[in-house]
Amino acid sequence: MSTATDTLEHDAHHDDHHHGPAKGIKRWLFTTNHKDIGTLYLWFSFIMFLTGGAMAMVIRAELFQPGLQIVDPNFFNQMTTVHGLIMVFGAVMPAFTGLANWLIPMMIGAPDMALPRMNNWSFWILPFAFAILISSLFLPGGGPAFGWTFYAPLSTTYSTDSTALFVFSVHIMGISSIMGAINVVVTIWNMRAPGMTWMKMPMFVWTWLITAFLLIAVMPVLAGVVTMVLTDKYFGTSFFDAAGGGDPVMFQHIFWFFGHPEVYIMILPAFGIISHIIPTFARKPLFGYASMVYATASIALLSFIVWAHHMFTTGMPVAAEMFFMFATMLISVPTGVKVFNWVATMWRGSMTFEVPMLFAIAFVVLFTIGGLSGLMLAITPVDFQYHDTYFVVAHFHYVLVSGAVFSIMAAAYYWLPKWTGVMFDTTLAKWHFWCSLISVNLLFFPMHFVGLAGMPRRIPDYALQFADFNQWISVGGFAFGLSQLIFLALLIKACRHKGEPVSDQVWDGAEGLEWEIPSPAPYHTFDTPPVVK
Amino acid sequence: MAQQQEYEKYYVPESSIWPIVGAVALFLIAVGAANFTVEMTKGKEGYGGYILTLGIVTLIVMVTGWFKNQIDESMAGLYSAQLGRSYRQGMAWFIFSEVMFFAAFFGALFYARMIAIPWLGGASNNAMTNEVLWPSFEAMWPLVQTPGGTETTPMGWFGLPLVNTLILLVSSVTLHYAHVGLEQNKRKQLTWMLGVTILLGVIFLGLQVEEYIYAYTELGLTLDSGIYGNTFFLLTGFHGMHVTLGTIILIVLFFRVLKGHFTPDEHFAFQAGSWYWHFVDVVWVMLFIFVYIL
To answer: So which residues of A are the catalytic ones?
Structure first.
């Protein structure tokens, strides 16, 4: 049987698949290798992170002083909109998909992702999708200016014709995400090495399995809602127009049915990453592995029944407000379990503070701050006060920047030596960490105060009394932006293999299949699966 | 040990040109469709239609080339049972994503019907909404008169829709027997039953076109006649697009069957096409109940 197949394989393909990467640009365009595609995803997401960051700099420059001085309000709106879209769909999600590509096959002992060609397709759609989105900014009348949430009627009645490009670029981003997610689910379900049972799976694999399920469930709903926006704007339908029997609030229901699971899509893989890093540098096994798995699953399930907490001020019936309030607060239980477990893992561990660990600890502290402000926002009567203020901006940037983005950086530092075979420049890395940590708090913490005092979000001007805090916020913003250039320099250096060669295990306490293969990881790993005991 | 051998043979394809061609195709389709939409509805001149066509042609070339590679590899025996499972699971998850796409539109239908329209009519605590905005509006379903005053006539379930329902239900049965024929190696039954399924699919689409013409000309039921017409046409329209795609898949399978492809044990493509068809059928049953009857 085996020989017969080998002969056939050689008939069909003259080159066998154990050779290294192709040369030049073709390697990256045509590749089916999970490591190449992971690298592509990660670099793409970093470029998008800098692009979206540059837009945030425009926002912060305008808000440095009260009054209108640098950009006109329409362009300001385009900046907030495209900044949000790029960071959500172009930076955070592709970064996690890139990490999934690199790590999942190595962690479960698979030769590659289950569907390697589709994997390439999922990636290469993204640069095109963002080329469309970003180029729409240069159209007459400008690009999308309705906020990343594109609420109707802003996106229907009051938008420019760049909306059509926006809709179709979101469509192809969605296609990319769904294919990427299907690949992850199938890889995890079907490609685990013998002995890699469900409850032996590394946490990153578990969290990504659940994330991929969420993606497949809600990205099509996003496709549906952008389609309705398109037909409402161009084909005379009235899904979001009360005159035709529709309802603009219905837009928000459908959007947030996608949008709330979406925010967990952006944080569950982060939970997985932190659950790898803390045990390594505390030199203790993860506290409460099983409870971590169940907590992740609970968060994912609850994410489907909390969407309307984004809509407390839309005039829903009180019973609905109560339901969504209590369901939302329930999420803090599994999330609390996670934070408890991370702290308990560190408890009495032999801790060392290498750069990935620094980012991981910062994640635990700062994400918890974001979680607690989320709990405040979940309480309906007080949300009436906080809604659409900078308090909300502070909340979701704490969970997304000092949460998701910090976890991505932690992951990059943690696995980079495995990918490149050399230790990154630890001096630069520490500079990057401390500059980011200080500036991110300077950037986002005062937003709580101006928000509570009533400064509205998405407005290019503000009342005079917010000026001092806003200047601090802008300084923090510029500092955070500049700090990322340190990261860029470090990454370029590491990718050119400048540095001390590392051992296979890299970190003293690291455990898992990916640490048993050579550093740098060879082009093909686990052609024959390892046996997991 | 058996399992380990199975893993050894998991086929990881060589680098391939098709995915990037597919990405370019989707890029052209997105740009073309966006420009075409604006040009068509605003009466502007432009190249949207050409770009869209070029994109669709590129996509067809891509799918053909990609599937040809797949079929060659499959016929060369490179595929293992494990790879077959990957494909089956991938297809199952793809269908789940399609279910969620339709769920968005069913959700809009239920929300409009159960919440938006009654509230516009003054239900719950919205008496003043009705009184101030549209005092003459009465909540009803189907919404034959919108708050804005557009009038229309609902589509009944008897007649064409009922016939179409029966056609699709029968087509699912015939496809099942085609599958049984394949599994029992009765090629004649396979060919005939698959052929009949395709024919039923084509008839369904023809009748659907006729129903649309009837809606537009006789009933005054159009895409822009309020939320009833919106949900009616988008749900049945997207379903129709899926039937079209399903029929194309079945036609490709038919020619592969004629060429002698598929064995009783190895027929992922057939199974995937069959799953897709049954899924489209189930969506129709939901449509028939929630859009036509209720």
So the answer is: 83, 112, 148, 176-177, 260, 262, 264, 275, 309-310, 335, 338, 457
Q: Decide if B42 touches A, using CB distance below 8 A.
A: yes
Question: Token pair for residue A463?
Answer: 């009342």
DSSP annotation string for A344-361? HHHTT------HHHHHHH
Could you tell me if residue B77 is left (phi over 0), alpha (psi between -120 and 50 degrees) or otherwise beta?
A: left
Q: What are phi and psi of B127, to 5 degrees?
A: -55, -40
Does the beta-carbon distance from B111 to A220 stay under 8 Å? no
CB of A360 closer than 8 Å to CB of A281: yes
* Contact in structure between A249 and B124 (CB atoms under 8 Å): no
Written as tens digits, the pLDDT of chain B (294 aa) is 344 444 446 888 888 999 999 999 999 999 999 999 999 998 888 899 999 999 999 999 999 999 999 888 888 888 888 999 999 999 999 999 999 999 999 999 999 999 999 999 998 888 998 999 999 899 999 999 999 999 999 999 888 999 999 999 999 999 999 999 999 999 999 999 999 999 999 999 999 999 999 999 999 999 999 999 999 999 999 999 999 999 999 999 999 999 999 999 889 999 999 999 999 999 999 999 999 998
**Mean pLDDT score, A518-530:** 91
Measured between alpha carbons, how far is A8 from A137 in angstroms, rounded to an integer? Answer: 52
CA distances from A311 to A306, A378, B87 (A): 10, 11, 40
- The torsion defined by the Cα of A280, A283, A288 and A292, in degrees rounded to 10, comes to -10
Among candidates B8, B16, B147 on the partner chain, residue whose Cβ is nearest the Cβ of A30: B16
Transcribe A19-55 into DSSP letters. Answer: S-PPSTHHHHHH---HHHHHHHHHHHHHHHHHHHHHH
Q: Which residues of B touch A239 (CB under 8 A)?
A: 108, 112, 227, 230
Question: How do residues A149-195 score in pLDDT, each as one tens digit?
Answer: 999 999 999 999 999 999 999 999 999 999 999 999 999 999 999 99
| Token code pair at residue A102 | 């690199």
Question: In terms of Cα–Cα distance, which of A97, A91, A160, A167 is closest to A132?
Answer: A167
Cα(B93)–Cα(A179) distance, integer angstroms: 10
C-alpha angle with apex A220: B12 to B202, nearest 5 degrees?
85
Query: Shortest CA distance to B276 belongs to which of B251, B255, B233, B245?
Result: B245
Backbone angles phi, psi at B151, to 5 degrees: -110, 150
Q: Is the dihedral of CA A61, A63, A66, A72 positive or negative?
A: positive
- Within a 10 A sphere around the Cβ of B39, how many other Cβ atoms? 17
Q: Could you count the other beta carbons within 10 Å of the beta carbon of residue A92?
A: 27
Question: Taking a C-beta distance cutoff of 8 angstroms, is the pair A384, A391 a contact?
Answer: no
Biggest CA–CA distance in chain A, Å, is 80
Residue contact B13–A32, C-beta within 8 A: yes
Q: Are A249 and A311 in contact (CB under 8 A)?
A: yes
The three state secondary structure string of A302-344 is HHHHCHHHHCHHHCCCHHHHHHHHHHHHHHHHHHHHHHHHHHH
Q: CA A375 to CA A329: how far, in whole Å?
A: 6
ipTM of the complex: 0.95
3-state secondary structure (DSSP) of residue A292? helix
Task: Report d(CA B164, CA B210) in Å as an integer.
Answer: 11
Tokens representing A192 are: 């685990």
pTM: 0.94
Answer for the pair B68, B16: CB distance below 8 angstroms, yes or no: no
